[in-house]
């Protein structure tokens, strides 16, 4: 204990005396922190933009056409199977989901916002809960619930009538819808989402020439809510047994299967990991150079009777302090920067992800410093006399 | 009743293996230094002075022979006990990079008390008094980088004495000083060693510094070739042009 307090005394004195030099290293760690936290936030933001709607679903299972590889746009489910699945035991609710893209026209000539056009069933699972206004009223009403992100990026308000443009066959079609409700963030495929009643969706979605004349509505997937969430696996097997030609994914599997989702997340994770690694090298390099410059000084400390543990603890305390100061600076900078980002930038600071990143950043100090600490401990006190054994 | 010597060595030998065979850096040296005695260790470059000092300092183990400090045989001590012995019983000044650069003069001196867990009010006062005795009363809060070589050596001397060691070892304390400063530093050093009743050994290649010591040990090729303890002989040695 006494030794640690002497070590802390030496460590703090040295940092204070050479504070400019140490601050510089802290700043570098601060910048690395900024980078790592932003990469994490970008990962979170992009991931969130992709999965937000699915991850907030009240349902536990997503039902796809068989062999669709859990790709929502590739899956087609007709309404016969919809009536069948409702009868499967243990299911409390099923909702249709149709996905498409549309251009939301904004005031001003050529301006529009690319949006996901999602068809959901009013009153059933899949229709997001509004935080303002009301839910969709009827299966084919010309109504829309807007994702909060649409509001953030336009001047549209509750009660307005919006205009969307889609291509049907070879022609551009214009449709108008009344905004009846607004939900919290519900992005889908990195776009803000418009939620319309399923049969309205089937009418106004982009279509090929062939589809225009084909009158039976087709959903992409069904969202299933089970009676008892602990029975999810049983229900899942039951659905695949009882309904012909379908496959089922849990919500988590459905998210992982979103186009590009896993690849994007692992790319960003690799980048974050690599930045951390650079941090380890920077800290390791700095402290190794320090210790090389201090050989005779450390020799003197040992010669006059400082134990190895004092020297080791002093290094550990210094490295830890410098890292903590650097990470604190970086976190502060990140916070300041984050205030200045517009809503279009897909950056989301998630508590858990940020905490994990910060813990990883705090570990780079001790890891980078290992070599120099080992080196310092091995310096012979004989070096004080300019000798070695 | 016999007074115990602060330092005693018996037939100390240190050999090194080199390309051209064995080198005897220290060759069969036996000596004693009593408390209150200040001794100079002189000799040409390569004669084994620094090696001998390292052995006395418990920093280097001799190939054979015995070293006793306050009657304790160093060969019986493990590394841990050697560190403790250096901290409690020995005071050091080194030729270069003596002081801890990020501690002020008084903090450098107090460090010795801190390491020995003896830094109390009285200790702090003694550190300041000792530095004042050494002419550094105005320099207490200066850092080594802000002091001259002579001032730094005097801080090191204070550090070497503050914890009441039995043995004080000084390696070339005047190497970086001009003649006048060198005389001043060694004179003060000798005075304090006598006054505080320590056993002091100073390695030097500057024979003029022998003026202030009680005995001169002359080494050559690792051997202790001559011991001068007559005042007249010492005076003659120190005043000779070299
Ligand atoms: N670590 C070592 N390895 C080999 N030879 C050494 C070593 N240390 C000292 N010596 C040799 O021992 C002799 C005495 O060296 P030293 O004690 O430094 O002499 P001095 O301090 O009197 O100049 C020299 O010949 C030197 O080369
Ligand atoms: Mg030497």
The SSE order of chain B reads EEEHEEHEHHHEHEEEH
Q: State the assembly state of the protein chains.
A: heterodimer
User: Going by CATH, what is the homologous superfamily of chain B?
Assistant: P-loop containing nucleotide triphosphate hydrolases
Fraction in beta strands of chain B: 25-35%
CATH overall fold name of chain B? Rossmann fold
Structural summary, described in words:
The complex is a heterodimer of chains A (389) and B (242). Chain A has 389 residues and is α+β, with helices and mostly antiparallel strands. Chain A is built from twelve helices and twelve strands. In chain A, the strands form two sheets. Chain A has a six-stranded mixed barrel with strand order 3-4-9-6-8-7. A two-stranded antiparallel sheet of chain A has the order 2-10. Chain B has 242 residues and is an alpha/beta fold. Chain B has a single domain (5-238), classed as Rossmann fold (3-Layer(aba) Sandwich). Chain B has a six-stranded mixed beta sheet, with helices on both faces. In chain B, a hairpin with a 2-residue loop joins strand 1 and strand 2. The relative contact order of chain B is 0.18. Chain A binds chain B through residues 2, 6, 9-10, 13-14, 16-18, 296-297, 300-307, 310, 380-382, 384-387, 389, and chain B through 50-51, 53-54, 57, 59-60, 80, 83-84, 86-88, 90, 92, 94-103, 107, 111-112, 114-117, 143, 159, 171. The complex binds adenosine-5'-diphosphate (ADP) and magnesium ion.
């Amino acid at each position: 204990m006494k030794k640690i307090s002497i070590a802390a005394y030496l460590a703090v004195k040295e940092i204070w005396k050479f504070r400019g030099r140490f601050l510089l290293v802290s700043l570098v760690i601060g910048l690395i922190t900024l980078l790592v936290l932003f990469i994490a936030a970008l990962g979170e933001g992009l991931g969130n933009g992709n999965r937000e709607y699915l991850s907030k679903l009240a349902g536990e299972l997503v039902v796809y056409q068989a062999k669709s590889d859990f790709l929502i746009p590739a899956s087609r489910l007709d309404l016969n199977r919809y009536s069948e699945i409702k009868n499967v035991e243990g299911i409390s609710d099923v909702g249709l989901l149709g996905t498409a893209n549309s251009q939301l026209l904004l005031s001003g000539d050529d301006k529009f916002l690319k949006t996901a056009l999602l068809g959901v069933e009013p009153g059933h699972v899949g229709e997001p809960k509004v935080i303002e206004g009301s839910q969709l009223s009827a299966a084919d009403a010309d109504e829309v619930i807007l994702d909060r992100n649409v509001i953030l990026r336009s001047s549209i308000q509750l009660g307005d009538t919006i205009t969307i443009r889609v291509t049907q066959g070879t022609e551009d079609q214009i449709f108008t819808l009344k905004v009846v409700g607004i939900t919290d963030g519900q992005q889908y495929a990195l776009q803000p989402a418009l939620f319309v009643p399923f049969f309205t969706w089937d009418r106004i979605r982009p279509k090929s020439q062939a589809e225009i004349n084909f009158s039976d509505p087709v959903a992409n997937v069904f969202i299933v809510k089970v009676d008892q969430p602990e029975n999810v696996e049983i229900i899942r097997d039951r659905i695949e047994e009882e309904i012909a030609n379908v496959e089922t994914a849990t919500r988590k599997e459905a998210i992982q299967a979103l186009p590009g989702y896993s690849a994007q997340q692992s790319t960003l994770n690799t980048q974050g990991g690599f930045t951390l690694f650079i941090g380890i090298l920077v800290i390791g390099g700095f402290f190794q150079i320090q210790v090389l410059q201090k050989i005779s000084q450390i020799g003197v400390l040992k010669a006059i009777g400082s134990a190895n543990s004092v020297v080791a603890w002093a290094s550990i305390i210094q490295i830890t302090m410098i890292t903590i100061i650097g990470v604190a600076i970086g976190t502060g900078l990140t916070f300041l920067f984050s205030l200045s980002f517009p809503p279009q930038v897909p950056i989301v600071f998630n508590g858990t992800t940020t905490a994990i990143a910060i813990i990883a950043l705090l570990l780079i100090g001790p890891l980078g410093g290992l070599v120099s600490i080992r080196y310092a401990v091995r310096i012979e006190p004989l070096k004080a006399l300019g000798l070695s054994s | 009743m016999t007074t115990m010597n602060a330092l005693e060595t018996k037939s100390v030998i240190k050999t090194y293996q080199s390309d051209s065979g064995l080198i005897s850096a220290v060759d069969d040296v036996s000596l004693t230094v009593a408390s209150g005695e200040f001794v100079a260790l002189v000799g040409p470059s390569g004669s084994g002075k620094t090696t001998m000092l390292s052995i006395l300092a418990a920093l280097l183990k001799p190939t054979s022979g015995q070293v006793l400090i306050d009657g304790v045989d160093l060969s019986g001590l493990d590394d841990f006990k050697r560190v403790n012995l250096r901290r409690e019983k020995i005071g050091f000044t080194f030729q270069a990079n003596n002081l801890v650069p990020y501690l002020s003069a008084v903090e450098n001196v107090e460090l010795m008390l801190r390491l020995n867990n003896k830094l109390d009010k009285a200790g702090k006062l003694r550190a300041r008094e000792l530095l004042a005795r050494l002419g550094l009363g105005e320099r207490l809060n200066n850092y080594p980088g802000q002091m001259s070589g002579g001032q730094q050596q005097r801080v090191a001397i204070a550090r070497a004495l503050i914890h009441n060691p039995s043995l004080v070892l000084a390696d070339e304390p005047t190497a970086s000083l001009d003649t006048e400063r060198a005389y001043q530093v060694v004179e003060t050093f000798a005075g304090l060693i006598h006054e505080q009743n320590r056993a002091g050994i100073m390695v030097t290649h500057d024979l003029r510094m022998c003026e202030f010591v009680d005995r001169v040990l002359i080494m050559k090729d690792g051997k202790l070739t001559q011991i001068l303890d007559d005042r007249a002989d010492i005076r003659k040695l120190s005043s000779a042009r070299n």
